[in-house]
Every structure is written in structure tokens, then in C-alpha cells.
Amino acid sequence: MTTNRNLRIRSLTTAAGLGLAALSLTACGNDGSGVRDEGRATNTSFESAASTSSASTSPEPAPAPSSQHDAQPTSSGSKAEGQTEGQSDSKAGGKAATKPGGTKGGGTTGTKFVTCQGSNTKTVAAPLTRPVNHLLLTVTNTGGNPCYLYYYPAVRFGEAQSVPPVIEDSQPQAVVTLAPGESGYASVNLSAADGSGGKGHWEKSLAVYFQGRTASQNPTSAAHPALPAKGVWIDDSVAVTYWQQSMDDAISW
Description:
Elements: H1 2-28, H2 34-57, H3 68-71, H4 78-82, E1 104-105, E2 108-109, E3 114-115, E4 121-128, E5 134-141, E6 147-149, E7 154-157, E8 176-178, E9 183-189, E10 201-203, E11 206-209, E12 232-234, E13 239-240, H5 247-250
Parallel strand pairs: 3-6
Antiparallel strand pairs: 1-2, 4-5, 5-9, 6-8, 7-11, 9-13, 10-12
């Protein structure tokens, strides 16, 4: 009886094995290529993923400059470097005056221009008979460099607390420039010829102060030209002209 039971068990085991084998062949396909197809599908999926990963991690080349302007930075300030000194300055003693340029000015390269003042000039004050009641100031450059006579002389007679006003119409076309040895001029209208200048008086001393291009550049060195022994007669109409390049221009006011 035991022998029959063992035979039934072996038969069932063998049948089960044959059934599993048949199922495996059916899953692989009728052409027997199922295993090979499954392997190719797996490899293809891996290669596709690797390709995608490679494409996503590879850096893209930087775009080339579209022009030379993009490739190289442009230099700024070229206009400022190209500018020249000696620009127009209509308020420095001339209606179309030339602004000094330090070591360049008046069109002379390498020449140092300075401000005229008492220390580099000689000033002479001479009363005139024609026109009457006029005092001519002559300033001569005694220095080694050209100098500028800005605006007009600030003259002070005796102990006066203020300086005479300037005759605005006498403003020249350009700042007066004196080369070494050259002279510039201004005149002082001392009093009214018709007596309309009010009460007058005699003055025996005079100080002439020079001006810079700006108030902060005004020189401190003044000139003290001698006056006639009896002095000069001045009244409330006293006024000065701008500095002039010629004596004729100075005494025409």
C-alpha cells in the first residue's frame, strides 16, 4: 500500500513539472525568441537612458560673440581726452575771452601762463590832460612768463573803504595777455568835467589790486604807483575801465 502511494506522488510531481515547462514555453513565444527579445528590450532601455543622461549633463558651448563690439569692451572718455584747453570764457575780462590753460594757452604749447599781479609787473599812474580828469594806468610784465590781466583794476585811493565801479561798456573782446615786456592799460575817470560828480577831494596815494579768473584766485600782491606830489582830484563819479590791450582803447572812455 505504501508502494502505491509513492507511485502516485511521483506521477503528480512529474505532471506538475511538465505543466510548468509548457507554461514557460508559451510565455517565451511560439518562435522561441522570447528570451532574446527580452534581453534586447532591456539593453535598449538602458542605452536610451544613458544617452538622455549624457545629453542633459554635457555643457553646451558658449555662443561666439556676434560682433567685435561684443567681443571686446569699448573704451570710454575718448571725447574728454580729445578736448583741448583754452575754451571760451566770456566773463574773465573779455566778451569772447580766451580761458588760460595752465601750461598751454594763447595757442603756444609748453608756455606757462600766470596771472598778472604786483609781484610780476610794474604799474605806472600818469594824469592825462586829454581827456581831462583822467588817470592812465600802465602795467608792464616784468616776469619771465606771459600773464593775464583779468577784468579791471580794483583801485583804492587813500583810506577809501570801497573801490570805484567799472564802466561796463569798456569790456574788451578778449582777456588782455601780456608777453614779457609788454604793457596793458586802463584809465580812471577821476571826476566829472562839468562838476556833476558832487563834492570832490584830493588824494595822494593809490593801490592797484589785480584780479584772478575767479574770486578764489585773486592775487594778494598789489601795486602802489606814485601819484603827483599834490595828488589827484576825485569826486563821486570816479570809475575805471576794463584792462585794454592798447592805450587808445583805454583812454577812449
